[in-house]
Design brief:
Blueprint: H1 9-12, E1 21-24, H2 34-43, E2 48-51, H3 63-67, E3 71-76, H4 83-91, E4 95-98, H5 101-113, E5 117-120, E6 134-137, E7 140-146, E8 150-161, E9 166-167, H6 176-179, E10 183-194, E11 213-216
Parallel strand pairs: 1-2, 1-8, 2-3, 3-4, 8-10, 10-11
Antiparallel strand pairs: 5-7, 6-7, 8-9
Protein name: CoA transferase subunit A
Family: Belongs to the 3-oxoacid CoA-transferase subunit A family.
Keywords: Transferase
């Protein structure tokens, strides 16, 4: 069985360079590849195109890359929690492509499955469909969307083995599964890394065939993006 384990985040990100396209998992701050993002900041790579559901917050997640002006373009679905993102977008410093959330997920999954493109009704008749091919199916208009083409994909899982098999926990099982295999190289960071064969096959969410590098993560903060509590009586 192929051993996908690398010693750590430094080795996991070997080959990342300026002007690459990256896909990153996570929803809000749940299930984001914290260690990989921190290493991208240290590498100081520039001119990045980042594909992710959102851009983190000002001082965490992809917000750290935005602070350092490392991202030239964001392809996202929701970006409402990041003031620096808003500032850069409105000033023209950051190119932004906003797409429907389901389309974002499906463009990742299409890349994972090897489909070059697909038709979806989402976005028809809006700015999303401008300049794109449209076609009617069963009396309903659909927009042609293309699978993403990315150099590296970064995901965060709860548990994995040295063969690259992954198990996600709770809501961290968001965009991460679709991103595995959607780039030329998928890097998985996990909270717990075990030898191959120790995971229950019935519990595995993503098989190792979709992962090229895996490492044991550390020092996860797991921040809560919005804390809402009931008022005391």
């Amino acid at each position: 069985m192929i051993n996908k384990k690398v010693p750590g985040v430094i080795e996991a990100l070997e080959g990342v360079s300026d002007n690459m396209t990256l896909i990153l998992g996570g929803f809000g701050l749940s299930g984001i590849p914290e260690n990989s993002i921190a290493q991208l900041v240290k590498l100081n790579v520039k001119g990045l195109t980042c594909i992710s559901n959102n851009a983190g917050v000002d001082d965490f997640g992809l917000g750290l890359l935005l602070q350092q002006k490392q991202i030239d373009k964001m392809i996202s679905s929701y970006v409402g929690e990041n003031d620096e993102f808003e500032r850069q977008m409105l000033s023209g410093e950051l190119e932004v492509e906003l797409i429907p959330q389901g389309t974002l997920a499906e463009r990742c999954r299409a890349a994972q499955a090897g489909f070059p493109a697909f038709y979806t009704p989402a976005g028809y008749g809006t700015e999303v469909a401008e300049g794109k091919e449209v076609r009617e199916f069963d009396g309903k208009m659909h927009v042609l969307e293309y699978a993403f083409k990315a150099d590296f994909g970064f995901v965060k899982a709860w548990k994995g083995d040295t063969a690259g098999n992954l198990i996600f926990k709770g809501t961290a099982r968001n965009f991460n599964p679709n991103i595995c295999g959607a780039a030329k190289i998928t890097v998985a960071e996990v909270e717990e890394l075990v030898p191959a064969g120790e995971l229950d096959p019935n519990q595995i969410h993503i098989p190792g065939i979709f992962v090229q590098r895996i490492f044991q993560g550390a020092l996860y903060e797991k921040r809560i993006e919005q804390r809402t509590v009931r008022q005391r009586n």
